[in-house]
Amino acid sequence: MFSRKHKPIIERCESDMNTRLRLKYAPYYRVVDSADGVNIVVEGRPMVMMSTNEYLGLVRHPKVIAATKEALEKWGASSCGSRLANGTRAYHIELEETLAAFLGKEACHVTSAGYLACVCSLSSLVQRGDILVVDPSIHSSLWDGALLSGAKIERFAHEDMDSLAKLLDHLDSKPAKALAVDGVYSMEGHIASLPQLCGLAEQHGAALVVDDAHGFGILGRDGRGVCDHLGVTERVDLICGSFSKSLASTGGFVAGSKALIEYLRSSSRQIIFSAAISPAAAASALASLRVIQEEPQHREQLWANHHYLRGILENLGLDYWQSPTPALPIVLGNREACYWMWKTLWDEGFFTVMSIAPGVPPGKDLIRTAVTSLHTREQLDRFGEAIKLGMKRAGLKLKSA
Question: 93: closest CA among 266, 288, 274, 286?
């Protein structure tokens, strides 16, 4: 009989010293003891969160808290199962119908995670024998959906429409095709060239799927997202996204034609076998959706802070990948410089995330930062001073030097 130490897979994992060292010393999985907006306490130390996705700062909004409490009292903590097995609840329908109308789509299905919404949008829509064309910078959730689909995957250069056009022209015309992109690329902050993408998809008869997790709530009319922002909502077949960015909740959605959404409900493993979104999560998302329409000041403050922080980065001569969105990366180009920048910002009381190759393209190693409506000018000014110190420690020259 084999003992535990003779299980090669377990032994391989447990003997990986690099993995253990990364878990112990790397800037990931730090424990946040408490959080009030961007003011957090990490392992007993007060800090300013500079990499959150809570763009509009609605997590503690009174209307959101009240709606969440009411849902808990009425429905309890969970439906404890999938909608197929346990039944759709009235709060699911209310949220889906409101979202569909807001997005300008016929129908919508909500999931317990934004990740699941993106996975199901591709894993069921695209099948073996089809061709799926993707921007290589799509979120991991779309990538996983692509791999699960069994389709042949083709890549085009990030946001390069000439590259995409040439690729589509050279593909076999017989297989069915789909195209998948992010509406806003969370690491780079880039907005997808959706008008051109729609045109190429239509020219080649390809279905178009857009993950708008980072555009929903902040772009477009009242925050309707990047498809609305660029005037292509009717030309995009499926819009999927998350509640954990602008809507102060957890969960996700996929929106499209009624027939397409019903198809996903009856064929997607991620929908059929996943527990439904909880009453509290649905209520907080719905309340946040109403707040962003009734109180535009949150979005206005977000964009004011975005322009202010972008100005700081420009004055320091830093590459922020020309991001036009609240995700403002500090692109340094190598992992050593990224480490010293991250460590300095940490020492100065700012929580950021270090992203290095292969998580980002070679030569684009970066510190991911994101601004919200809750940041104060004083915090952003202090962040700018901390970046200066980080540049010195990383051996980078200040623009004024």
Answer: 286
270/115 Cα distance (integer angstroms): 10
CATH of 26-55+296-393, one of 3.30.565.10, 1.10.4030.10, 3.40.50.1000, 3.90.1150.10: 3.90.1150.10
| Consecutive H or E run containing 179 | strand 177-182
CATH architecture of 62-294: 3-Layer(aba) Sandwich (3.40)
What residues pair up with 184 in beta bridges, in sequence order? Answer: 191
Q: What is the pLDDT of residues 265-289, one digit of tens each?
A: 999 999 999 999 999 999 999 999 9
- Between CA 122 and CA 209 the distance in angstroms is 8
Average pLDDT, the chain: 93
pLDDT per position as a tens digit, 359-379? 788 888 999 999 999 999 999
Task: Give alpha helix (H) positions in 171-242.
Answer: 194-203, 226-229
- What are the distances in angstroms from CA 154 to CA 135, 143, 148, 158? 9, 12, 15, 12
